[in-house]
Amino acid sequence: MSILGPRLKDRPNSTMKILTFTSLFPNTFQPDLAIFVYQRVSNLARLTGNHVTVIAPVPYFPSWIPLSRWRTFSRIPREERMGDLRVLHPRYPFVARIMMPLHGLLIVFGCLAPMIRLKRRFNFECIDSHFMYPDGFAAVLLGKILGVPVTVSARGTDINEYPSFRWIRPQIRWTLRHASGVMAVSAALREKIVELGRPLDQIKVIANGIDPQLFTQIDRSEARRSLGLPQNAEIIICVAALRSVKRHKFLIQAIRLLTTKHPELQLYIVGEGPLRSELELLLAELNLTESVFLVGQKSNSDLKIWFNAANVSCLTSEKEGWPNVLCESLACGTPVVATRVGGIPEIVTSPEFGVLVEQDSESIASGLEVALSRNWDRQEIARHAANRTWVAVATETKDYLKECVEVWRQQRVAN
Prior knowledge:
alpha/beta, 16 helices, 16 strands, single chain, Rossmann fold, six-stranded parallel beta sheet, about 15% strand
């Protein structure tokens, strides 16, 4: 037996006090923001007897400045409850882009005092942070100040894109060196973390899950009726923010290649982003305004209906971590066509669930052609996807957090 006493996992009915630290978290005015983080944390809280508190820092923004994009930050309360979770929203100074290399340090500046007060009252055992930079960097630095172990979770963009920035890459590498634990949502993301200096055996892969109560199979005709979609059309859905990394142009061009053979084909793109105007122009140029529709952002509960209404779900990203939209589509029994990048091959593990394609319009069109012509076993697809629940994700997370805390305590005693 260790001089620390029984290992945490051997202690009967052991619970943990956990502080989750992330700016990617739903709030009153953005209820669907990073819902995948909320799902993992809320289920983790249930496993620990609700011994989880969330700090979700937001930039300080004066309410009197008339910029709607940023004004939302000023309306977010300092403290609120999201489900059963207590969520604190400390403010920190920030100007987008100009201060990006200082983003993590500014978060530390705004969060240190609130975290010291919380540590005295809540006495959390570890900090569970999400997104490598700036959140993970700030969390690890705060953990060193407070004398608490910190785990960081890589989600996708933080590892796929941010290390390319000259001033941010060293901060990510520092975070990976000093974190007590590192989690990645896919094995592909783990390989990229290894390239940044963290040993392979010190990275835990914990993939995201789905909510089986929300994403379930329903009758396709009923789903289409509720959305006002044509019953006889061949419908493809793409759920992805309107950003260049999602490569909507390739998908739209693929649709153009298919319309002659599939005159009833319709594509619905669910999401918002800076490329809306550019994509609208492209649709007009290609005469696809009657075949491709940009339907905007939809709530998580609405997505269930969209997935069930579609023949096929498609994602043509250039980079990905672990795209939950594919898992949610499969949970509704809808097969997927997706590019062979990031964690996608770890989701589409069999041709019984979908088709993997390359990053060009011809390959995407060919994959969609195969998917539309096949008679899929929707029940088997849904059954397979339902195996990976958020409860399973939370259980794996809790076990890993316990392990990291125990190792950290042993190292403290040894030193």
